[in-house]
Amino acid sequence: MRDVEFLGINPAVFLSTMVVAAMPVLLAAMGELIVEKSGVLNLGVEGLMIIGAVCGFIVSVETGSPVAGLLGALLAGAILAGIFGLLTQYFHASQVATGLALTLFGLGLSALLGQSYTGIRPPDFSIPNFGVLSELPVIGILLFSYDFLVYFSLALVVGIWWFLNHSRTGLALRAIGENHNAAHSLGYHVIRVRLVAILFGGACGGLGGAYLALIRVPQWTEGMTAGAGWIALALVVFGSWRPFRVVLGAFLFGGVTLLQLNLQALGIAINPAYLSMTPYIVTIAALVVISGMGSHASLRAPACLGKPFDATK
Amino acid sequence: MARFFDAEQISKTYPGVKANDQIKLSIDAGEIHALLGENGSGKSTLVKIIYGLLPPDEGKMLLNGQRYRPQSPRQARAEGVAMVFQHFSLFEALTVAENIELGMDDPPSRNKLEATIDQIGQRYRLPILPRRIVGDLSVGERQRVEIIRCLMQNPKLLIMDEPTSVLTPQEADQLFETLNELSHEGTSILYISHKLEEIRNLCTRATILRLGKVVNVCNPKSKSAQELAELMVGTNFATASKGSTVKGSEPLLCAENLSCGAVTEFGVSLSDVNFEVKKGEILGIAGVAGNGQEELAAVIAGEAKATGSLRFKGSDLLHKRITERRELGLLTAPEERLGHSAASEMSLTENAFLTADQRMALSSSGVIDWKKTKDFTRSVISQFDVRATGADSPARALSGGNLQKFVIGREIAQKPEALVVNQPTWGVDAAAAAIIRQALIDLASKGAAVLVISQDLDELLEISSSIAVLNLGQLSAAKNTDEITRNEIGLLMGGVHGPTVGSETTVVAA
Question: Is the whole model's pTM more than 0.80, yes or no?
Answer without folding.
Answer: no
